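User: Fold this; tokens only.

Assistant: Input:
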Amino acid sequence: MTQTTGRIFDEMARLVNDAAGVAQGMRREAETVARSQMERFLRDMDLVAAARLENERLAQRLAELEAKLAAQAPHAPGESGFSGTPGAGPGPV
């Protein structure tokens, strides 16, 4: 009986050990699959091109706003569009 019980425990220990090895292999496989899917997802999103496009749009918008602001602001002496006499500023204060 003792020998039979020992064999059963040995078989159970071997089974648990094998199951742990299988579980570890499955974990590694799941990590590999998840990593490759994430890399593919990021590559498909093309984040660099999207950021570059957004940067170009913002640069264009900035140029438009600067042009609009320049058209509204009074011109300083020496700049084109100044209609006053050069060197003439406000009178004595």
